[in-house]
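INTERNAL TRANSFER SHEET
From: sequence group
To: structure group
Subject: Twin-arginine translocation signal domain-containing protein

Please process the attached sequence and return the structure record in the designated field. Keep the field labels unchanged so the import script can parse them.
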Amino acid sequence: MKKQASDLSRRQLLKTLALGSAAGAVATVSGQALAATEATATAAKQADGYRETEHVRSYYDTLRSK
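Return from structure group:
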């Protein structure tokens, strides 16, 4: 009977290792996808940044004339 108990614990260990590595792979892939989504959202926000409009240009002109 001792040999059978040893086989069961070994099988349980192998199942646990397989499930753990699969879960780690899923977490890694989903984390990378989330990071890519955040980078895209950040780039979109930066596109609406500084714009040199007419009143800004006139202000710069007043600074240069001094």
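Handover comment: The helical segments are 2-47, 54-64. Residues 2-47 form the longest helix (46 residues).
Transfer complete.
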